[in-house]
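Quick one, tokens below. Sequence please?
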């Protein structure tokens, strides 16, 4: 059995990049994507892309689900 076969599968929290964690935490605030982009010094489209990536990785499809997931996993 190889080392790869003995490791547990990654959960959504472990696969998120540092920036995705920041964006996920920002989603919990009552702000728009434009406001998040301004805070992070990136474009709104960059934030949209990062949000889509977060949703895909953690298996959610709405902002409220993402925020609930973040709270449950100690990200917020």
């Amino acid at each position: 059995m190889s080392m790869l076969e003995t490791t547990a599968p990654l959960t959504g929290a472990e696969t998120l990049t540092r920036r995705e964690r920041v964006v996920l935490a920002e989603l919990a605030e009552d702000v728009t994507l434009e406001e998040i982009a301004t805070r992070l010094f990136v474009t709104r489209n960059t934030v949209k892309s990062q949000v889509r990536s977060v949703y895909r990785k953690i298996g959610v499809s709405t902002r409220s689900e993402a925020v609930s997931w973040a709270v449950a996993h100690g990200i917020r």
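Residues 1-9 have pLDDT under 50 and may be disordered. Helices lie at 3-6, 12-15, 18-27, 33-40, 44-58, 63-72.
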